[in-house]
Structure formats: structure tokens, C-alpha cells
Design the sequence.
């Protein structure tokens, strides 16, 4: 069986992800590519190091695909996330969503990247010129205090 | 035996990624209080908890063979 959702140590081939969602019913395939940014708030990143709880991360990516299918109906999703050492401009994540019409594909891929930042156990460590740090929640709320985001918290994406 | 997995800053602070602890029959809250406090793991209370690769809360009672993971706020993407 071909995996639709995977974590890899190797560079991601964008076509590999897109190919998973190609189908005759689709009129749109939207891709999102997350890359390593050099400057964040004036601070220079030299490289990043990503770590994942791989089996759970793949399960949670799969869950995001299922949520998208539930919310948008006829939508197929594939997601690959890279871990290990990534240099500036390297591709960290590729999301592809295919739907019959374009609006759903745009919305669903936006949903996927936001959701990755909430429930998928992947962490990045910034290596700056003057030190290192594991980066926490980037969505500007603190942790979810022992529970994953609730339906209530997810409503903003509906 | 319960396997406890640690990631990111928790893993770095401990210097290893796994602990094996005799903790069957107690809750995760008790696991933290009785067995993990001594390690002085940073921001352990900010970490989400997973049991056998599914999110769980502190009241979950552990069974022999369970895998508990402490998941600091995630930063993928």
C-alpha cells in the first residue's frame, strides 16, 4: 500500500506527494510547501533540526486527512514532513489536497497546515548564530493543558 | 513495565529518550508525582500526554506495557 502520510529523513520530492492525490474527479490540486526561513524577527537561523514521534505523527497526519474528508466531502489529502537537519530554504513539509473545485482545495490545505501545528508531534530546534532553542507552540497560545485542541478551539477553521 | 518517551527539550534535559518504570495501575498524574519529579524535567506540565500513540489526560490509569509519551508544545510545519 502506498502511504499518503509520512515522515522522512530524506528530501521530499514534491511530485511524490502530489501524485498521491491525482484522480479523475479532481478539478483542483492545491499544494502547500513549508520551507526553512532564514530570518525570524531579525534573528538569523543557520539551520533547523526537526524531531518527530514518528508513528504517532504519521497517525495524526492521517487523522488530519480524515478530518478534511469529513469537512469538505470529496477531498483527498497527502502530507509528507521531513525531519533531521534542514538548511535554509529546504522543504520541511508538503501538503497536497485534491477536490472537484478549487475553493475547497485552497481551504483544506490551509486547514491542514494549521492543524499540523496543533496536533502532530513534530518539534523544531532553531540553531542561531548565538545559541539554540526548541521552539514551542507557534500559534501564540500556550500549551493545551493536557488535552489536544477541542472542537470548540477548532471552530475557527470551519 | 511502562515505557515513557520524551521528546525535544524534555529528551535533551534527561539525556535520553526513554525511561522504563514499574508504574502499572497508577494514573499519569501519579506517575509524574511519584516517578518523574526527581528528574526535574523542564515544563513537564506544559506537555500534552499520549498513551499508546493517542492523546490522553492525566487521569488515565496505566496498564502494563503501555507507552506514555510527553509531548511538549509542537512546532512542525
Sequence:
Amino acid at each position: 500500500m502506498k502511504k499518503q502520510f509520512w515522515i522522512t529523513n530524506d528530501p521530499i520530492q514534491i511530485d511524490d506527494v502530489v501524485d498521491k492525490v491525482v484522480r479523475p474527479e479532481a478539478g483542483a490540486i492545491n499544494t502547500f510547501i513549508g520551507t526553512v526561513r532564514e530570518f525570524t524577527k531579525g534573528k538569523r537561523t543557520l539551520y533547523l533540526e526537526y524531531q518527530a514521534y514518528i508513528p504517532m505523527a504519521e497517525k495524526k497526519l492521517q487523522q488530519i486527512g480524515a478530518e478534511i474528508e469529513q469537512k469538505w466531502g470529496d477531498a483527498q489529502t497527502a502530507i509528507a514532513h521531513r525531519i533531521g537537519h534542514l538548511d535554509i530554504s529546504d522543504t520541511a513539509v508538503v501538503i497536497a489536497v485534491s477536490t472537484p473545485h478549487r475553493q475547497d482545495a485552497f481551504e483544506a490545505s490551509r486547514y491542514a497546515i494549521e492543524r499540523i501545528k496543533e496536533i502532530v508531534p513534530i518539534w523544531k530546534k532553531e540553531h542561531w548564530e548565538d545559541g539554540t532553542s526548541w521552539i514551542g507552540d507557534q500559534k501564540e497560545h500556550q500549551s493545551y493543558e493536557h488535552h489536544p485542541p477541542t472542537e470548540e478551539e477548532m471552530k475557527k477553521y470551519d | 513495565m511502562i515505557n515513557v518517551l520524551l521528546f525535544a527539550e524534555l529528551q535533551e534535559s534527561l539525556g535520553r529518550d526513554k525511561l522504563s518504570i514499574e508504574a502499572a495501575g497508577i494514573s499519569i498524574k501519579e506517575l509524574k508525582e511519584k516517578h518523574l519529579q526527581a528528574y526535574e524535567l523542564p515544563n513537564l506540565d506544559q506537555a500534552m500526554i499520549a498513551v499508546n500513540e493517542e492523546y490522553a489526560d492525566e487521569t488515565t490509569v496505566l496498564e502494563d506495557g503501555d507507552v506514555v509519551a510527553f509531548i511538549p508544545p509542537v512546532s512542525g510545519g
User: Anything to note?
Assistant: Chain B touches chain A at residues 5, 7-9, 11-12, 46-50, 53-55, 57-58, 69, 71-77 (CB under 8 Å). Chain B has a mean pLDDT of 97.
